[in-house]
Amino acid sequence: MLSLLVLISGGGSNLRALLEACRSADYPAHVIAVGADTDAPGLAHAEEFGVPTFTVIPSAFGSRAAWGEELLEQIERWNPDLVVCAGFMRILPPGVVADLTPRLINTHPALLPAFPGAHAVRDALAAGAEVTGVTVHVIDEGVDTGPVIVQREVAVRPGDTEHALHERIKTVERELLVQAVLDIATGHVDLEETAAR
């Protein structure tokens, strides 16, 4: 059984998808804790499912490195098999990445390496892309540059707004994340091999 620690910053729709998947007896993973960098509304999903939570707010620390040290300490207290950044909107400090990778994955609303960064959906529309999508990848020290685990395309429709496109992407993102965690748990994806590519 793969133990998951999930990091969020917002509403937690990806977290909820994982929590619901983990309720199934034949899903070989479970969420043991949820962390956030703010008083994220998505923490309510964890509370609903009886999963412990913690919050490490960057503004409470004198430096990004100090925040990262406390975040890592909180994560390591749970000794998870896998850390999932699911809508976690902060770049992790190098020390955190070095300690956790390749057992550290992220979802991104684009087909990386296209459209990295915080405004991927807006950037895809601005570029006139006809296809974008979702990537689940191992986190490295770059911004959305880590080795790709799996991707799935989402078509851009004529007249799409950023909101409409992002909502369609999020539906695919939830499915893809649940599948990626399943593939890691069952050994169909080897994170050490993925990271070595």
Number of strands: 7
User: What is the class in the CATH system?
Assistant: Alpha Beta
Average residue pLDDT: 96
Number of domains: 1
The CATH architecture name reads 3-Layer(aba) Sandwich
Distance from N terminus to C terminus (CA atoms, Å) equals 26 Å
- β-strand amount: 15-25%
Walk me through what this model shows.
- It is a single chain.
- It contains seven helices and seven strands.
- The protein has a single domain, classed as Formyl transferase, N-terminal domain (Rossmann fold), CATH 3.40.50.170.
- The chain is an alpha/beta fold.
- The two termini are 26 Å apart.
- The radius of gyration is 16 Å and the shape is globular.
- The protein is 38% helix and 22% strand.
- Strands 3-2-1-4-5-6-7 form a seven-stranded mixed β-sheet, sandwiched between helices.
Task: Itemize the secondary structure elements and their pairings.
Layout: E1 2-8, H1 13-22, E2 29-36, H2 43-48, E3 53-55, H3 64-78, E4 82-85, H4 94-100, E5 104-108, H5 120-126, E6 131-138, E7 148-155, H6 162-185, H7 191-195
Helix pairs in contact: 1-6, 3-4
